[in-house]
Specification:
Oligomer: single chain
Number of strands: 7
CATH superfamily: Beta-grasp domain
Radius of gyration: 13 Å
Structural class: alpha+beta
Number of helices: 3
Shape: globular
Strand order of the largest sheet: 2-1-7-4-5
Order of helices and strands: EHEEHEEEEH
Strand content: 25-35%
């Protein structure tokens, strides 16, 4: 895990290209001194909600609206479009509806 007061964030697929275009290392280290939710993480990363299907927080797939990120966590940001067989092995079961459920 990353040090206290930071999180490590990795972008998958198209989001990896976005992170590289911004000059961010992989993983991208962000300061974080208090717990935030997934929506706040996307705001801080300046990544649109529609560009993200789910997050992995410490290797567990979770929908953005349900994610809780704490200092020291490792987070992966996953865009829509992960191919079918890989979705199941990664723990991504279905695309959430507009409400994130």
């Amino acid at each position: 895990m990353s040090g206290q007061g930071t999180i490590d964030v990795v972008g998958f697929m198209d989001l990896a290209s976005l992170f590289r275009a911004r000059g961010w290392a992989s993983p991208h280290r962000m300061d974080l001194d208090a717990e935030i939710d997934g929506d706040e993480l996307l705001r801080r990363l300046d990544v649109p909600d529609a560009a993200v299907e789910c997050l992995f927080v410490n290797h567990h797939a979770i929908m953005v609206a349900a994610a809780r990120i704490r200092p020291g966590d490792r987070v992966a940001v996953v865009p829509p479009g992960v191919p079918g067989p890989h979705r199941f092995s990664l723990g991504i079961w279905k695309r959430p509806d507009a409400a994130g459920k």
